[in-house]
Design a protein that fits this description.
Fructose-1,6-Bisphosphatase, Chain A, domain 1, D-Maltodextrin-Binding Protein, domain 2, 2 domains, eight-stranded mixed sheet, globular, binds 2,5-anhydro-1,6-di-O-phosphono-D-mannitol, binds magnesium ion
Length: 338
Amino acid sequence: MNPEIALRIALPIGTTLDRFIQQKQEQFPFATGELSQLLRDIALASKIVNREINRAGLLDIVGSFGTQNVQGEEQKKLDVIANVRFIRALKNGREACGIISEEEEDLIDTGNYNGKYVIAIDPLDGSSNIDVNVSVGTIFSIYRRRSPIGTEVQAEDLLQRGVDQVAAGYIIYGSSTMLVYTTGYGVNGFTYEPSLGEYILSHTNIQMPEEGTIYSCNEGQYHEYFAADRAYIDYCREQKYKTRYIGSMVADFHRNLLKGGIFFYPATQSAKKGKLRLMHECNAMAFIAEQAGGKATDGKQRILEITPTHYHQRTPFYVGSKKMVEKVEQFIKQFAQE
Ligand code: AHM
Ligand code: MG
């Protein structure tokens, strides 16, 4: 037999995401399967979005949709497509009673009053990169609802702190497509195998290096940043760290998660709360970072302990290797005292 074929047959395909979720569920005696189903619904929607992204150049789906989202930002056609796909999958899956999306102003009542969970989602993060074939992502957080099962979803169901997430994850549509998630018991990554239509376990129990040499921020904003952030950037330059900034947080975060590094989007002179959304973007990344041994703060406070007051709340965000985040916090503390 051709040795290459023999090798291919000999190698097992590996654990599929479905099988992995099922195995994990079996470890919890009282788990009833709803959370597992929810994760499967998200994975299914991501496969459809992945297909659309892969064909983006061939279809008339690059460019602007001609509308703005709730933050007044231009919506790309793929933003709208991804939003529809995820919301539809979550509604049809029947496990989520409410959803907040970065693309929608209000809380979406799915009508699934018996659903135990609520979701915060950024359906397509970094979408300004889509027209130029650069990686984009989806970010999601899952919470247990607070209002009684069988009733309408309430704002209080969503306005929970990040520490209350029961699961969070992201999908990176990159050189390969990966789904990375945590349920609070470590972080695992699955790579999409397009010919099988399956996510296969490829990165088990991901650990973020404690220290790193990559810093990711929009350095073009240097003069817009406050003194502490500028001083930290100066420090990174002195250390001869590598600067890497894709402009898609999921991609920047994913690289730093695997290689070690820090991503930050601080407050600026004109945007005192920064740009990134606590509920749709930062909480999920903070949960994953902490589960992988990393750290996430707004410069002063742990991201996961911030109590949100509105769905589209923004926050300065520093996330990555523990020691790097601690270093930037030192600068922030020092400059606050001066
Ligand atoms: P988006 O959700 O509208 O795509 O914005 C979030 C993105 C992040 O992925 C990325 O890190 C950041 O915006 C880039 O912003 P900037 O161009 O200001 O550096
Ligand atoms: Mg976003």
